[in-house]
Every structure is written in C-alpha cells, then in structure tokens.
Amino acid sequence: MAEAAPKKSKQDAPLRVDFHTHILPKEIPDWKTQFGYGGFITLEDKTEASANMMRDDGHFFRKIESNCWDPEVRLKEMKATGVDVQVLCTVPVMFAYWAEPKDGLTVAKYLNDDISATCVAFPKNFIGLATLPMQDPALAVEELRRAMALPGMVGVQIGSHIGDWNLDAPELEIFWKTAEELNAAVLVHPWDMQLDGRYKDYWAPWLVGMPAETTLAMVTMLMGGVLEKFPNLRVCFAHGGGSFAFTLGRIEHGYNVRPDLCAQKCKLSPKSFVGKFWVDSAVHDNGALKYLADVVGSDKVVLGSDYPFPLGEPEPGKCVDTNDGFNEQQKAAILSGNALEFLGKSPGEFQ
C-alpha cells in the first residue's frame, strides 16, 4: 500500500498576503467637538471585545469586534487562517470627503499615523495604505507625499468617487500624476452607495450598490483616459472589480458602437487596458473567480478577503485553494506573488 503524501509544512506553503483588510485606531477623537460640526464616526459602548461605530448624530452604523482595532487579535486570527501578511487600510466610512478640507486632512493624518505605527510594531505582518482628503486635490497630494514617507506605507486607498467627481474628473489629475510619480499603489474601494429608496431592503447597498460603484469607477478611469494618460499607475479595484469582468463585453461593444458617447476622452478601447490594472479575489465563488482571472489575467488578481467584516471571506484564499481552474503556480501567484509585485515588495521581507 502506497504511503500518503506528506502534508505540506508551513515552510513549503506559499506566502499568503491578504491585500484587502480594514483597520481602525483603538480610539477615535471627538472630531465633532474639535471641528465644530458633525458627521463623523465615533466608537461607543466599547468593551475589550467590541464597540459600536456610531455617527456623531447618534445613528448606528456597525458593530465591530476588537479585531478591527487590536493588532494582537488580528495576528491570532491570521495565524488561525494561514495569513502571513495583511495590507491595512481604513474603513471607507472614515474617508470624510464631505468635510472641510483642512479637517479632512487632520482626519487622514490621524488615521495614517495609526496605520504606520501598527506596521512599525509588526513589520513582518502588516503593510499600510493611507487615506487622503481627496475633496482638495492639493491637500491630498501633500498628504500623499507625507504618508508615502511614513514607515510601512506603500500607497493609498481612495473611494470610487469623490463627492460629485468621478475618478476621471480633471480636478483629480494632479493626484493621479503624483501617485504615478511616487509609484504609489492605489486601491479603489466602493463607498457612499445609495442607502434609501429602492436600496433600503435586502442589504442592497452592499450586495448590489458596491459592485456597481466599482464598475462605474473602472469605466470612468478607462473611458476617461486616466490609464492612457498615466500608463505607469498601479491601481487595484476591490471586490474583484465589481461587475466589470462580467459586463466588459457590453462595455466594449458600447464603446465601439457609440464613440460619440464613449470615446470622447480616450481613443483606446476599454479592453485594451486589460492587463494594466489589478483586482482582488473577493468574489466568494470559485467559478466567478476563475472567470475573473480569465478576463483580467491570473497575474492581475490579488488575494483579498475584506477582513474583518461579515461580507469578507472567512477563510482568506479558500476560493483559490479549492479552485480546480488554477494550477499550483497560479494559486501561489494569487495568494501572494501578484500582491507583492503590485506593492513592490519581496517575500524575504516577511519571512
């Protein structure tokens, strides 16, 4: 009788880098009092195990557990699920793009300094993405330059739109130019979805609104000429790029048959940019993940779980590990290699 194959040791297993995770500071200042107006998030009813994220007008936003602010708890859960490295970014509700720009800068600096401090404390386990006061592109560039000089920080997370600006807005050109110049990794995350009306039931803002937001962000960047003008940008879109991969045929067809509407800012078709951007793997379905990789390229998919929230993947990388559509080389690339390349890092920095 043949002997069973030996179980892979930790040393043999590929590094696992979770590119899409969120974190908050342990304490959030009373910005309503500090700035003289409200709309900010606070932590209330906080214990060692949990807290309520509340808007400062008293409206409940979300209950969180200590893994959202305590790196020691995160490390234990990472070990339990086989994750070696997490890329940390704030929770999108903290963007505060609606705030006065100088106040948005204060918020961003506080959050960025906290993420950097966590990366400094655990340099083998955490990498940081900053947040910026994108409502004022000049201040955003100022904070981008400062944040990129902080230990552990390699890029930024931005929202899928900035107020009424889509991501191809001319006001944002200075940001994209600087991000390219600094070789900053950019994660585009959906946010500020419609919450009421037809979206008020069935968790629709998160299940339908978020994928739509991300897809619109991608279309505006491609048809708006952002990647044409800044070809060396490193941009990753959250949640597998929303519904983009599954509607790319329709988007491409629309570009070709209505150039008067779709080709005004960019003379290259959306499909011509495939292979020039990244997406994460947070699609929750093996077949969808394989199709996504077929469309954008398996070398452009990075592991992303959306930890530590309910819509996150409980076992980061399970849809990769159990996917018969990928060979071992592709699995290793999605689990870590692609993210490390995107971030400009090497495996040795985390071993």
**Alpha-carbon Rg, integer:** 20 Å
Instruction: Report the order of strands and helices.
Output: EHEEEHEHEHEHEHHEHHEHEHH
* Strand fraction: 15-25%
Report the total helices: 12
What strand order characterises the main sheet?
1-5-6-7-8-9-10-11
**Share in helix:** 25-40%
In words, what does this structure look like?
- The chain has 351 residues and is α/β, with parallel strands linked by helices.
- A hairpin with a 5-residue loop joins strand 2 (41-44) and strand 3.
- It has an 8-stranded parallel beta sheet.
- The chain has helices spanning 31-35, 71-81, 101-121, 137-148, 173-182, 204-223, 226-229, 244-257, 259-262, 286-296, 318-321, 328-343; strands at residues 17-22, 41-44, 50-55, 60-65, 85-89, 126-130, 153-159, 185-189, 234-237, 278-280, 301-302.
- Helix 4 (137-148) runs parallel beside helix 5.
